[in-house]
């Protein structure tokens, strides 16, 4: 796993990964994706690795925010916006496509011996 293009999780990435659905956070003005226009209180809907999707449709990750604050509130029930549902639906399609491609790659694990070895021991 990586975060922010690095090969190890950042402290911020670890903090995001520890969030739970229903946690209430404060996203600073200009941060998140799409960027919030003012300091915003959002409820976490889905946590995936070092990223999270909030119920209002804002995503947070090491790339899109510099920090966030927990309010200390947790909601067992909350409304999820249509924007957030659409983002999750699009992400689900991409995950399914990645899974299909990976399955296709793993399906044929027998090497193709019909291709000549580029480092053959045979004289030219």
Helix and strand run:
HEEEEEH
| Straight-line N-to-C gap | 45 Å
Mean pLDDT, to the nearest integer, reads 88
Specify the structural class: alpha+beta
Q: In which range does the helix fraction lie?
A: 25-40%
* Low-pLDDT regions: none
Shape: elongated
Strand content: 15-25%
Radius of gyration: 21 Å
Sketch the major β-sheet.
5 strands, antiparallel
Can you count the beta strands? 5
The oligomeric state is single chain
Number of helices: 2
Provide the domain count. 1
Strand order of the largest sheet: 4-3-2-1-5
Structure description:
With 124 residues, this protein is α+β, with helices and mostly antiparallel strands. It contains 2 helices and 5 strands; from the N terminus they run αβββββα. The longest helix has 26 residues, at 82-107.
Strand-helix topology:
Elements: H1 11-17, E1 23-27, E2 40-48, E3 51-54, E4 59-61, E5 68-74, H2 82-107
Antiparallel strand pairs: 1-2, 1-5, 2-3, 3-4
Features:
124 residues, elongated, alpha+beta, 5-stranded antiparallel β-sheet, 23% strand, 5 strands
Short description:
By secondary structure, this protein is α+β, with helices and mostly antiparallel strands.
